[in-house]
């Protein structure tokens, strides 16, 4: 398929006249075309199309359709129907009134091509760059980030279902790709009876003994199929079928092969004693190799992904006066006057097992690369560490976030002496305890790949100390402290002290607004449930979801409808008045 870069076609005169008459005040698709036509171009997608072959549809048109699709949370069929029968969409796409649109399958092919070539963020980044050039977002302000879970587009499977369904997925793929080879390796009739319908726990035997036997059968079938696929006389491309490769992974992760007393090979399901792979490597479905199981707290347990949304949330106090002056100047220009909208500046998608702290640096780096580095970055307690706070400060980013508290036994119990009760002399590399006694050893070490310092007090020093029972419960009877290097230790200590003040708490309240952004993304685009399979396509979904939310917020800005106040019931208002 080839493509000649053209961009959005011009708006036919008849379409423009009818649309203006039908929508005298405009509508979101009409204003989108009028204000942001330059964002949607073909050039960024040219690398994903050839120069020969049948001409394909314009990527600019399809990306605009996709943005409108996510703005209204439509399916592919509904979006294709909207192109055919919605006047405002015809205006936005530059279509004649008599245009019959295109088949809905074009959208899925477009997404696959975009995801395959890593272009899922093109439209989002072009829109944010346009807003940066227009002065709506920029470096040096405030931004806030939060994450939410994303449920995969495939059904949840337990370990037994995963084993059986993986065999079934491989058989289904080989039945299409290599039917004659498959027929020569298995008893098709027997396997069709066992793996014809999908493997479902509701149809499995209730007896534990029979379930264990079924698990062994699944393992034996998987092993036989893998041995046939990796036999010397088997064509190499057989084992390159994705479902076959995933079956091999599931076999290794779920089963163990050993020899019994008679020397026969026996396959059985792994248990905790045999060792299981960590969650970040463990496959959860043969139909989505990127989805992973994860938990958050005691109540949330899901299979899928995690998305981090970052949005602008105003300027720093010293820049507010200048912003107000600009707003007053814009007021004379008509539309677009008022407070600048909060716009999503970055969207970061990972598998479910990646902790929030691992996303902090990539998010900040991407913001800096695109000229959007914030002066203050508001985050919850899952994102910071002493290293990250220090590194961000060196780059000009102040992380406004609760630093993790001291987790020592003394700090948790709020009794005895935690680290803050000790005086540290970094030059002499000695620590003085609350009783006025000095440490005896200072040893630099590596813990979890990071530099640390272990401070040890002598047994003789601690033995006759009147505070020993309040200070340590170790068997040797001496106190040991683990510190970070000086710069990190002092940064963390300052952050812990600052976050106890009312000033910091009032400042940190600004972070809560990003919860509303996640709720808006959930209500409008359904961001918490993956539409597609695989991390590249889920990233595409989230990038277009963020683009759609920005379009909706820009439309409110263009029509002079700023962010509305939070709705409060009359009863709640009365309660507030009585409290005051």
Structure described in brief:
The chain is an alpha+beta fold.
Description:
The chain starts with 12 loop residues before the first helix and ends with a helix. It has helices at residues 13-22, 28-36, 59-71, 76-85, 87-93, 105-116, 122-133, 159-177, 179-183, 188-195, 208-229, 236-239, 242-254, 317-331, 360-369, 386-394, 409-413, 459-463, 468-471, 486-498, 502-508, 513-525, 535-558, 570-579, and strands at 142-151, 255-259, 265-269, 292-296, 300-312, 344-351, 376-378, 398-400, 423-425, 430-432, 441-447, 450-456, 480-483. The strands form 4 sheets. Strands 1, 4, 5, 6, 7 and 8 form a 6-stranded mixed sheet that branches. Strands 11-12-13 form a 3-stranded antiparallel sheet, with no helix packed on it. The chain has a two-stranded antiparallel sheet with strand order 2-3. The chain is flat and about 95 Å long. Helix 1 packs across helix 5, helix 8 (159-177) runs parallel beside helix 11 and helix 8 (159-177) packs antiparallel against helix 13. A hairpin with a 2-residue loop joins strand 11 (441-447) and strand 12. It is built from 24 helices and 13 strands. The model is unreliable at 331-335 (pLDDT under 50). It is of the alpha+beta class and 580 residues long.
């Amino acid at each position: 398929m080839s493509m000649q870069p053209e961009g959005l076609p011009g708006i036919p005169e008849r379409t423009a006249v009818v649309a203006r008459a039908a929508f005298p005040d405009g509508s979101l698709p009409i204003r989108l075309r009028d204000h942001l036509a330059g964002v949607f171009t073909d050039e960024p997608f040219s690398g994903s199309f050839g120069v020969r072959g049948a001409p394909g549809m314009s990527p600019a048109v399809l990306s605009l359709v996709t943005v409108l699709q996510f703005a209204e949370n439509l399916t592919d069929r509904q979006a294709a129907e909207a192109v055919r029968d919605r006047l405002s969409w015809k205006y936005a796409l530059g279509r004649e009134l008599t245009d019959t649109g295109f088949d809905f399958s074009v959208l899925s092919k477009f997404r696959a091509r975009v995801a395959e070539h890593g272009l899922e963020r093109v439209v989002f980044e072009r829109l944010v760059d346009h807003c940066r050039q227009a002065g709506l977002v920029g470096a040096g302000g405030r931004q806030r980030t939060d994450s939410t879970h994303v449920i995969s587009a495939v059904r949840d499977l337990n370990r037994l279902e995963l084993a059986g369904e993986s065999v079934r997925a491989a058989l289904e793929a080989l039945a299409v790709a290599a039917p004659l080879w498959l027929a020569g390796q298995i008893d098709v009739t027997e396997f069709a009876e066992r793996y014809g319908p999908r493997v479902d726990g509701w149809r499995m035997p209730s007896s534990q003994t029979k379930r264990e036997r079924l698990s062994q059968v699944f393992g034996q079938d998987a092993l036989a199929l893998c041995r046939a696929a990796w036999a010397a006389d088997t064509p190499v491309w057989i084992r390159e079928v994705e479902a076959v490769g995933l079956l091999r992974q599931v076999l290794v992760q779920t089963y163990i092969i050993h020899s019994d007393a008679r020397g026969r090979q026996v396959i059985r399901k792994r248990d905790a004693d045999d060792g299981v792979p960590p969650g970040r490597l463990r496959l959860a479905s043969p139909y989505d190799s990127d989805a992973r199981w994860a938990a958050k707290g005691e109540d949330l347990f899901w299979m899928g992904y995690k998305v981090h949304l970052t949005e602008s949330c105003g300027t720093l106090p010293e820049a507010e006066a200048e912003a107000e002056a600009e707003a007053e100047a814009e007021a004379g220009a008509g539309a677009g006057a008022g407070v600048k909208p909060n716009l999503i500046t970055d969207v970061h998608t990972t598998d479910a097992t990646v902790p929030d702290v691992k996303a902090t640096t990539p998010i900040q780096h991407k913001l800096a690369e695109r000229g959007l580095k914030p002066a203050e970055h508001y985050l919850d307690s899952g994102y910071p560490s002493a290293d990250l706070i220090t590194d961000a400060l060196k780059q000009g980013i102040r992380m406004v976030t609760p630093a993790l508290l001291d987790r020592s036994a003394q700090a948790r119990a709020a009794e005895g002496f935690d680290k803050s009760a000790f005086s540290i002399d970094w030059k002499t590399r000695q620590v003085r305890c609350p009783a006025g006694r000095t440490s005896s050893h200072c040893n630099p070490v590596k813990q979890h790949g990071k530099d640390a310092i272990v401070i040890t007090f002598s047994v003789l020093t601690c033995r006759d100390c009147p505070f020993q029972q309040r200070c340590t419960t170790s068997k040797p009877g001496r106190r040991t402290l683990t510190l970070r290097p000086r710069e990190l230790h002092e940064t963390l200590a300052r952050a812990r002290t600052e976050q106890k003040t009312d000033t910091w708490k009032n400042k940190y309240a600004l972070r809560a607004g990003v919860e509303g952004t996640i709720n808006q993304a959930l209500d409008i685009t359904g961001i918490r449930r993956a539409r597609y399979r695989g991390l590249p396509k889920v990233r595409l979904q989230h990038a277009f979801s963020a683009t759609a939310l920005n379009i909706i917020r820009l439309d409110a800005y263009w029509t002079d409808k700023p962010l509305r106040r939070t709705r409060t019931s009359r009863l709640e208002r009365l309660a507030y008045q009585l409290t005051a």
